[in-house]
Amino acid sequence: MTKEEIENGTADMEIDQRELMNGERSELNAVPDGFNANYLKVYYGKLFPHADIFKWMSYGNDGKHPGCDESYFGRREFSFTLDNDIYLRFQSFNSVSQLENSIKEKCPFKIDIGPVYSVDPAKRHAYAQSGNNVFTPVEKELVFDIDMTDYDDVRYCCSGADVCLKCWTLMTIAIKVIDPALRDDFGFNHILWVYSGRRGVHCWVCDPKARRLTNEQRSSIAEYFRVYKGNENSQKKVSLTSSALHPFLLRSYKVLEEFFEGNLLSNQSLFSTEERYEKILEMIPDESITSELRGKWQDNKKSSISKENINVDRWKHVKKILKSGKQKGQGLGKCVEEIVFSFSYPRLDMEVSKHMNHLLKAPFCIHPKTGRVCVPIDPNHCEEFDPTAVPTLSKLLEEINMGGLGTDDDAEWDRTSLGKSIRFFRSSFLQPLLKSCKEEIENSYNAKLQHSKTSLTW
Amino acid sequence: MEIIRSQRKPVHIDVVPTLPLYRSAPPLEVRLEDFELYAMDRLRVLKGIADGLSRGKKSEEMKNLADHLWKANMRHLDASEVVNKDIISHFVLRLVYCRTEDLRKWFLSMETNLFRYRLLFEKAEVQRALMAEFDLPYRAASNAELESVKEGLKQVAQSFGQPLAADAIFYKVPFEEVPELVAGRRVFIHKGYAYIAMNQVVSLVSTQFRSHLSKALILTNRKWTSTIREQEKDRLTPIVEALCSSYLGPDYSQPREFAEISIKDIDQIAKSSFPLCMRHLFEKLREDHHLKHGGRMQLGLFLKGVGLKLEDALAFWKAEFSQRVGSERFDKEYAYSIRHNYGREGKRTIITSAPGVGDHHGCPYRHFSEENLRAALGKMGISNRAVEDVMDKVRNRHYQLACTLTFEAVHGTSCDAGINHPNQYFSDSQKVLQSKNQSTV
């Protein structure tokens, strides 16, 4: 769309007329829900933050300092998924305009970000012929992917692709457990949490140390975070030793307990039916205890306790009996904790984190099934994040329409709901990251200079 | 290393303040006799460790066992030669154990265990020096640093079920250098640094030792097959090839005075102190008045080892055999080999020589069917539970352990050293019985 068309208002009418349903003429600005190439064209034309993504991926190598690595951005792999599921790998670009033009031209339904390779991915075949395997990943952010479908056995409000505020708590918990550990335990600082667009979250750890981790090291971090080990077949999927917990688990437990008791118990009605409480009883390896509880609850079916209280009460029974130490059965030591962990502890996709060459969806993409933007999440206020209120593609286009005429082309995003997200991305993540990168480039440049100076002494 | 036959020339090697790492064969001269003897001494240590591990000894016990074995076998009259013996014996055994995958695996495992136990006994300075050798330049955390993370360190220690020692040393290391410890949540991590306990450092150093040795063994094997074996076929190769199967226990071929027995005692003693293999042979001999060659040899040597004098042996065998073949034939065909038995012999063959039809020698734990073995054990008067334990060892092919358990069940005492030889069974048995007699007097 040209500036002329906008000023004439003809561009807006084009959209409206193309998407009219049943011949009805809706409000001038209204844009029906949907996800398609036309919408995307507008999005990539006016809203998608190409320059921010470029600055991020350059990690300070913008050519303004003699210590910059001019080849850095060009060695990064991107991949595009086009309409009709055509998948283009090993896309690389040498400048922000190349990146922007390619996206606008190809209009990908999904953009993935891969590693930085030893050489420009476009030239990989030339190097492979030398036989020395010179084409290899050298840097990649440490990433985590947490998906709600991995929790299907412990959420009753939704299943499969659906997500609601009740089960979204599980994602809140995941962020509140993993984020502090990344900062306090591992010492990472430049961390970006992103809504995956439908039913999960992604985490990008961008410190230089993180980007240079080997597969083995990434694996060890993922294992450090792993507690849940199971599939549909194994009964006891969380197994904690009966002696004390590692400090990371202790710290996490405080978060888990708070949300389990204050939120999940009631929102998921974990004890309200026999089928549901049997699931929990299965986790208690002591027949006498489980039959005592079962007996108690079967009697209570007829009592007048309100539905909310039933879950809280029954959990109280469970805790009391397990902590009383009456029956010194085997494996009861950490049973309460195991139950809480089972229902709430984060479940990471291990494969995503372990491999340097894994490609992960770029932030600010639009999810094809929901039309929602993959916006950043503030870990410090993640309890307030509402996945059902995330701006959709159609809503953003409406907001553009309402924007009116004679406005500055460059900052159209600022007048939409996307503005908040982009501003947050810049202030809390991008700017501190770039500042630190520039410092690193300067320092290592000066160090090299120093080194060569001293080695030249006669 | 140069192997020489002549008088040993004194060689000075810098006193190494740390455990040797066996990085490369040192320029030492070794006498041919020492080549074999040093290796056998070290092999006793390694086999002792293997034995301890298969008996399920815990790490503290193993540490002490290894120390005991080392001191018992690896001493040298000349103090300055102790280190040389250590190094030379290791390199000789590399030649012996590089030759097949199984041998390499066993040697790698035992040498790494030995290294680890020795390292645990060393002072902190030595341990630190070794860390530096392996490019693991870990820095000890200062007291101030430890104070700030004390709570976390305590919790980690508790998660292993161990209390935190007040003066415990911790090393501060970037977390990415210890991925296994991080993955297993076996360390406290703070702001990108892992705090490693001393025994974990030992573990890390040992892992490095193991990986170096593993690579070295492959190279040694290549050199062995391509050059050394052929070059040394008249000198070192026969020694090397014999070393891993040689018997290392006490020499029972020279009977000792206190173990003398006479023919009139023999039935009684067979019931109380013979191991199952010998009991079986003895009973068969009494029954059939005959034994085939393998059985004659094993029982004959055993009896010699328990102190049966040559004249008594001849009388004993003659008494039995002449009932079947007549005394002239005995004198003509069998007496010679009995006299021959009283020459020098040191190879262990019981477990490996499989009995054929009509044979009764060999190890019953290995060759008897389950039924027959159970029956035989029952006849020795062992409880059902003990029989089950023995059968369990047999199923796992630990025949000597099975014999050891039998010993323990029959005598009601434990046998820490394990049974390695029928004569050892006998002499240990006699010791136990004698001490029992003494205590009841």
TrEMBL record, chain A:
InterPro entries, alphabetized: DNA_primase_S (IPR002755), DNA_primase_ssu_euk/arc (IPR014052)
Report the GO terms under cellular component. Answer: alpha DNA polymerase:primase complex
Q: Which cofactor(s) does the record list?
A: Mg(2+); Mn(2+)
Q: Does the keyword Protease apply?
A: no
Gene3D superfamilies in UniProt? DNA primase, PRIM domain
Q: What keyword terms does UniProt attach to this protein?
A: DNA replication, DNA-directed RNA polymerase, Metal-binding, Nucleotidyltransferase, Primosome, Transcription, Transferase, Zinc
Q: Name one GO molecular function term.
A: metal ion binding
Name the Gene Ontology biological process terms: DNA replication, synthesis of primer
EC number(s) of the enzyme?
Answer: 2.7.7.-
The UniProt entry's sequence similarity note says:
Belongs to the eukaryotic-type primase small subunit family.
Q: Which NCBIfam families match?
A: primase_sml
Q: What is this protein called?
A: DNA primase
Organism source for this protein?
A: Quercus rubra (Northern red oak)
TrEMBL record, chain B:
Q: Which residues form the DNA primase large subunit C-terminal domain?
A: 267-426
Annotated [4Fe-4S] cluster binding sites: 277, 363, 403
- GO BP term, example: DNA replication initiation
Q: Which domain of life is it from?
A: Eukaryota
A GO molecular function annotation here is:
metal ion binding
Name a GO CC annotation attached to this entry: alpha DNA polymerase:primase complex
Q: Which InterPro entries match?
A: DNA_primase_C, DNA_primase_lsu_euk, DNA_primase_lsu_euk/arc
Q: Which UniProt keywords apply?
A: 4Fe-4S, DNA replication, DNA-binding, Iron, Iron-sulfur, Metal-binding, Primosome
Q: Which Pfam families match?
A: DNA_primase_lrg (PF04104), DNA_primase_lrg_N (PF26466)
Q: Where is the signal peptide?
A: none
Cofactors: [4Fe-4S] cluster
Under the heading PANTHER family, the entry gives: DNA PRIMASE LARGE SUBUNIT (PTHR10537)
- Family statement drawn from the similarity comment of this UniProt entry: Belongs to the eukaryotic-type primase large subunit family.
Name used for this protein in its record: DNA primase large subunit C-terminal domain-containing protein
